[in-house]
Specification:
Layout: H1 13-16, H2 20-26, H3 31-41, E1 44-45, H4 46-53, H5 58-70, E2 74-79, E3 85-90, H6 92-95, H7 98-125
Antiparallel strand pairs: 1-3, 2-3
Keywords: DNA-binding, Transcription, Transcription regulation
InterPro entries: HTH_HxlR (IPR002577), WH-like_DNA-bd_sf (IPR036388), WH_DNA-bd_sf (IPR036390)
Organism: Streptomyces massasporeus
Length: 126
């Protein structure tokens, strides 16, 4: 008879790293640029946001905006005009991430050169 063993608690991502859920929400490929752009430039229409981010496809931008709205980080406002107008803005919850982004920007400015040097050294050894 085969027995099934439960996974050790340390392998459950939320227990091994209590911020993993936040990292999954906030630091996915396109979420950070969207939130950064909305925080920096304020309320925007879809096309404005798409232009500011640059390399994102409309399909991916739509998916990410829907997810961010679902997560409560972005507010979508529909204006029933002709033609209809939709605007997006960062929510209060999304704005509460500003200190985190500021710390990451500071860390990036202070340490990305070191990361690049480490990569170069590692790649040179291979």
């Amino acid at each position: 008879m085969e027995t099934t063993r439960a996974a050790p608690a340390a392998t459950v991502p939320e227990l091994a790293c209590p911020i993993s859920a936040v990292v999954d929400i906030v630091f996915s490929r396109w979420t950070t640029p969207i939130l950064w752009t909305l925080h920096t430039h304020g309320r925007q229409r879809f096309v404005e946001l798409e232009r500011r981010i640059g390399t994102i496809t409309p399909k991916v931008l739509t998916q990410r905006l829907r997810q961010l709205e679902r997560d409560g980080l972005v507010v979508r406002t529909y204006h029933p005009e002709v033609p209809p107008r939709v605007e997006y803005e960062i929510s209060e919850l999304g704005r509460s991430l500003a200190p985190l982004f500021a710390h990451l920007a500071d860390w990036s400015a202070a340490h990305l050169d070191e990361v690049e040097q480490a990569r170069h050294a590692y790649d040179s050894e291979s």
